[in-house]
Amino acid sequence: MRVTTQAELDDRYGRTKRSTTRLWIGIAAIIGLVAVVGIGWTVVQKSRANVGFDDLGFEVVDSGHVDVHYRVTIPTDDEAVCVIEALDESFAKVGWEIVDVPESDSLSSEHSTTVRTVDTATTGHVVSCFVR
């Protein structure tokens, strides 16, 4: 009686060498996805980092209004949006405003915004600004 070898059994029953093609396609897809996410994250962070703001002061007009003075620094030919809020003596939010900052020929521009309040404000300030 003749003993069959492993190679003969593989030929007879169709066993083939394991292919690693699918593995390499999966690895390439994961690397591609990580690269796309990394590039997207970088673009978003750079666009957010281009806006700066400084609070210059505030003036309580009456029990229903406060004027907030601030400086916004954005690249020329860009527009920004700023969020302004007014707080009372217990630091509760009593008013807020979303303000469009138009493009300017200079890097920095000063602005003043009147915020309507539901109670007397004791302070007003810029919360955040971002490129439109």
From TrEMBL:
Keywords from the UniProt entry: Membrane, Transmembrane, Transmembrane helix
Classification via InterPro entries: DUF4307 (IPR025443)
Residues passing through the membrane, by range: 21-44
Pfam families: DUF4307
UniProt superkingdom: Bacteria
Protein name: DUF4307 domain-containing protein
Organism: Microbacterium sorbitolivorans
